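Can anyone check this?
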Amino acid sequence: MIWEWMLSAALGLPTATSKITIKSDLSVRARDGVILRTDHYGPGRAGPAVLLRTPYGRGAAAALIGRLCAAQGVHAVVQSCRGTFGSGGRFEPLVHERDDGLDTLDWLRRQPWYSGRLGMIGVSYQGAAHWALAADAAPDLAAMVAVVTTSAMRDLTYAGEAFSLDTVLTWTELLEAQRVPWLARQVELRRGQPRLTAGFRHLPLAEADLVATGGTVPFFQRWLEEHAAGSAYWRDRVFDGRLAEVTAPVLMVAGWHDIFLPAQLDDFRVLRDAGGGPSLTIGPWTHGSPGLFAATLRAGLPFLTGRLTGGDGAGQRGGEGTGCLAGGGAARPAGGGPAGEIDIVLTGRPERRRSWPVPYIPTAWYLQPDQGLRTTVAEDGAPDEFVYDPADPTPSVGGPVLVAHRAGPVDNTALEARADVLTWTSVPLEHDLTAIGPVHAEIWESGSGPYRDVFVRLCDVDRAGVSRNVCDGLVRVVPGRFPEDGDGVCRVTVPLWPIGHVFRAGHRLRVQVSGGAHPRWSRNPGTGEPLGEAVTLRSVQRRVFHDTVRRSALILPVETKT
């Protein structure tokens, strides 16, 4: 009990007051007879409960959340998804989470200690598993905390209609590694995961799972096959269609450099437009980073426990949009603010805004023939050229990737020195420039082949000349997706990750354009072969246009003060 008290104090949580009882490896029977292994953290008296369903095991972070909830007088139920950590059946991403969640809720309703008020908290896949259940969890559901997650995994998997190789293969390897003995896993990690790296490089992609994990993984194979937009395979594996039915208060915790950020902000807008008054906290976090976990505990647990125990408009549509801010700035305890407000951290400065997106002026920064970047339209000039060679694919560095220590802002000097990366740079800024909101680029380009990718990255170049990435995005070009003009030139719209950044006076903006970012996205072989089968690699000559007619530009959301 002492360490729960100390940790609660360190995180700014209310003082722990309850004696905790723990029951491990309980059997919850799903409708098809599968046993779902479950741990129960109880405060010693009847009351509300928090549910956390996870494929990552019931120890470590999940156990910590369970103990902290119970210390605040709220029961916690931590359950292994089917096919993981003692639960029966086979793990198949997203397929069973709704039914298994409903069966677990039915089990909860039969427990004498459960009062009928439910909260859910989940990070990444855990959050997706809870979105599968959320619309059907009424009337019990009183609050939900969704951390770096989304209700619709499909679009992340095929961001820009390419394939998010780093995220998917890394996650596949992580899940398979949970079956490996602890010592063998530590050896592989200390070696730098050479098998995973080899899997990134391997062609065809249909063998990448075998290279990375030593076995063929069924869902990885299907995800390579079912990449077409509108595939029936994904219909029952995304849950955004019923998002507006969720009436309980929802707190979302997101990171500016997280893989789920665009989709998570889409979820926020749907809930807000439906009148749900969701709350949102965004900070300078990457997926799985320590700062993100601290922010989750500081913001999420008070949000849950306060609403479950009767405060802050629990269970009402349009509950207060509150949250807690952590990471890069001092924490602010959860508390008052009108519905839909968001807490954000901009370069270390905690602030509050009314909602997302904040008021902004879309400001075009035009690519110039002299490699400049200005807010005035370029004069006529010859296009810039480069060659994308899939045998030596342009690498990805930093940005929103799954592994925290490889993610986020990094020095782009070596990347920008490559011949297959074009850059345009502004003059030093005279004043600070605050950019918050959606970002996109309009790139006029052509290629010697019809199959190609357009990758665009925005960087902040400091006074010492170091260029660090702020946000980026990629779009796959295939015949018919983008109309061509009479010269075979396409105007390609590239959505970048949303931005929340202050460019300081004296710094410069830099835009990169290249033909890929491997292995964050799978390389484009240039042939149009099927995703999982491609082995032939074809270089493509690329041209980027910037003149009075073909106005290639990055459109930046410059915040307006209201």
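Reply from J.R.: I decoded it. Confidence is low (pLDDT under 50) at residues 312-339.
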